[in-house]
Design a protein that fits this description.
Blueprint (H helix, E strand, L loop, with lengths): L18 H26 L8 H11 L2 H22 L7 H22 L5 H27 L3 H15 L1 H14 L1 H4 L3 H26 L10
């Protein structure tokens, strides 16, 4: 089915996303990159005897699955670093960028599925990964299909959904931090709170972008961040 200009949503006058959304995007981007760097450092250096017990056990878990962890975090790092170029007007229409973006997203999703097999938080964490990873893939596929049909407005909407879900992994980090800090009072272990943190972090991003999309119409061309 072909899409004509009549199928495109109306174009609003502002050409940029609201400030709060741009700030949230960059914060998530920084957290995601920092998380990858920290994980890479812990994989490359010997375990620290001064690390908190819960954090040390978590680092040991990732070290025992080093090959899968490296594949996932490096592909995710490249994917995240491409995001600013995806929304920058000077590069958003790049065919090379699109050829890289969609396949790389598939690899990130596939390795996330694989890592969930041995989820630290057990079935509760695994359920969050399976649900949101599938939602990410569905959004990515929809964005790709609409892009192939030159329906840029709808492609943009689904791309934003995919990006928001992916960056949900960054939102989980502050949530996990709260659980780690309060562990002395709650006595919760990573196995117990990782699933809760994953559901909270991914849900915040997915709900926030969906609420914004339902109340705003996007231009047919890419919008600059």
């Amino acid at each position: 089915m072909a899409f004509s200009a009549q199928n495109q949503p109306a174009v609003p006058s502002p050409r940029t996303f609201p400030r709060w959304l741009r700030i949230f995007f960059w914060i998530c981007l920084v957290i995601a990159v920092a998380a990858v760097i920290r994980r890479a450092v812990t994989l490359l250096t010997p375990p620290s005897s001064s690390a908190p017990p819960q954090l040390a056990r978590l680092d040991n878990w990732f070290a025992s699955h080093a090959a899968l962890t490296w594949t996932h975090i490096l592909c995710a790092l490249v994917f995240v670093l491409l995001l600013p170029f995806l929304f920058w007007t000077r590069t958003s229409s790049s065919a090379v960028l699109k050829r890289i973006f969609f396949p790389l997203g598939l690899i990130v999703a596939a390795t996330a599925y694989a890592m969930s097999i041995n989820a630290v938080g057990g079935w509760f964490e695994r359920s969050a990964v399976l649900f949101y990873d599938t939602l990410f893939l569905a959004s990515l596929a929809a964005a790709w299909l609409f892009n192939r049909r030159d329906n840029l407005a709808h492609s943009q909407r689904w791309t934003l959904r995919a990006v928001a879900i992916l960056l949900g992994i960054a939102t989980t980090r502050p949530v996990m931090g709260v659980f780690f800090v309060t562990a002395r009072f709650t006595h919760l272990t990573p196995h117990q709170f990782f699933g809760i943190a994953f559901w909270i972090g991914f849900s915040i991003n997915a709900i926030a972008i969906e609420l914004w999309l339902q109340t705003h119409k996007l231009p047919a061309e890419r919008t600059a961040l």
